[in-house]
Amino acid sequence: MGAARQHGERLERLVLGGLADLGKLREVVRLLLLDCAQDDVIDAVLVADELGTLGCEYGTQPVDVSVSRSYRRPALRIAVNSPYLGLPFSPSRSRTSRRVLEACAADWGIGNEHEGTTLWACVQLPSAVPEPDGQHFPEPRVSA
């Protein structure tokens, strides 16, 4: 797992070797959203879990994942990349994935890139306060 920060964003990268690694992805999402309300965190974890599961179940492993947190326009972008990434064959599985993404993500898609296929989603974070200068990370939210 690596981290990078530039232009008001924080980027985490990790590799999933299988479904057993989904916990690492969930933890990365949670750590990037310490300043957000529980509803935003739940939506983001659901989306990350769905994308990670699709990558592990229907992609060639290992699966590369990037999670990017924008502080200027509060949002989280999750991208799963695999040399080959198919879609679920089962109509019910496909419907379930689509419902999760449409309910929790502001936008999502799938596309071919130079190193394979990428499935991505963007989750808006309405509870996060925008950081106009992007020079510091917000403090964790304290529960009452």
From TrEMBL:
Could you name the domain of life of the organism this protein comes from? Bacteria
Entry's InterPro entries? Answer: HATPase_C_sf (IPR036890)
Name of this chain's protein: ATP-binding protein
Q: Which species is this record about?
A: Amycolatopsis bartoniae
